[in-house]
């Protein structure tokens, strides 16, 4: 189950039913949320996440609890994770929008080219699991078409040939997207600032010059890193180094 966020407050309403058994700590977190103990609920949800339980509803509920306990960076992070697990979910997108409204962000993002927008929209059609399932379905359809073509001589060969070719294209597309999304999940370079305010440095050293400051909840791209610092790029193209403790990778 999960709790929905309205424009003014978060309503304690169960909207989803988990297909798999929910851990006890998840249920306890929901109970704490209903009791308006949001900080404690967030801690319970995080405990479940740290145990390896990865479902959209869990991150959604965690985002709501973080939002209500005024931990905006972790709220944005949690909603982003939920959206990754369930692309296109309107409730998650809405709550992420509300959380981002609380981010003190004066960063003007560089405009995307038309093909970059199309690529982002394509990625949001399915989750990595959805692309993988789709590739399996198209694979079996492809196998069926090949069997019909070679072992059903009475059928129209030209029709089957073009159908098999079309199915093959879809299989390759879905398989490629599944592989790409899986690789992206394991090598994601995007991160969320989770500290209230972080000074971005000119070099990976505490004594280096302060370039600018970023606020909690801002999304950055991690370009490089050392043990203690990460080189990041903001949406407006600015780059610099910040302590690794101020970031949480998606």
TrEMBL record:
Keywords: Membrane, Repeat, Signal, TPR repeat, Transmembrane, Transmembrane helix. It comes from the Bacteria. It holds the Pfam family TPR_2. The lineage of its organism: Bacteria, Pseudomonadati, Bacteroidota, Chitinophagia, Chitinophagales. PROSITE patterns: TPR, TPR_REGION. The keyword Signal applies. Residues 197-245 form the SH3b domain. SUPFAM superfamilies: TPR-like. TPR repeats lie at residues 56-89. InterPro entries: SH3-like_bac-type, TPR-like_helical_dom_sf, TPR_2, TPR_rpt. The chain crosses the membrane at residues 131-152, 159-181. Residues 1-19 form the signal peptide. The keyword S-adenosyl-L-methionine does not apply. This is Tetratricopeptide repeat protein.
């Amino acid at each position: 189950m999960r709790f929905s966020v309205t424009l003014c407050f978060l309503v304690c309403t169960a909207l989803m039913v988990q297909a798999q058994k929910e851990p006890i700590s998840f249920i306890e977190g929901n109970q704490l949320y209903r009791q308006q103990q949001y900080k404690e609920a967030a801690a319970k949800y995080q405990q479940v996440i740290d145990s390896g339980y990865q479902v959209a509803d869990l991150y959604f509920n965690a985002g709501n609890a973080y939002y209500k306990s005024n931990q905006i960076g972790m709220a944005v992070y949690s909603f982003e994770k939920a959206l990754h697990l369930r692309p296109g979910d309107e409730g998650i997108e809405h709550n992420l929008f509300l959380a981002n409204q609380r981010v003190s962000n004066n960063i003007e993002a560089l405009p995307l080219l038309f093909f970059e927008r199309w690529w982002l929209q394509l990625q949001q059609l399915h989750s990595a699991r959805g692309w993988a399932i789709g590739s399996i379905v198209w694979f079996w359809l492809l196998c069926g078409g090949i069997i019909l073509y070679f072992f059903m001589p009475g059928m129209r060969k030209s029709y089957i040939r073009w159908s098999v070719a079309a199915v093959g294209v879809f299989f390759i597309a879905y398989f490629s997207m599944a592989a790409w999304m899986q690789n992206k999940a394991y090598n994601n370079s995007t991160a969320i600032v989770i500290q209230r305010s972080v000074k971005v440095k000119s070099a990976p050293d505490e004594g280096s010059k302060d370039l600018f400051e970023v606020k909690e909840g801002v999304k950055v791209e991690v370009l490089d890193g050392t043990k203690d610092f990460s080189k990041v790029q903001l949406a407006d193209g600015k780059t610099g180094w910040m302590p690794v403790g101020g970031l949480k990778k998606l």
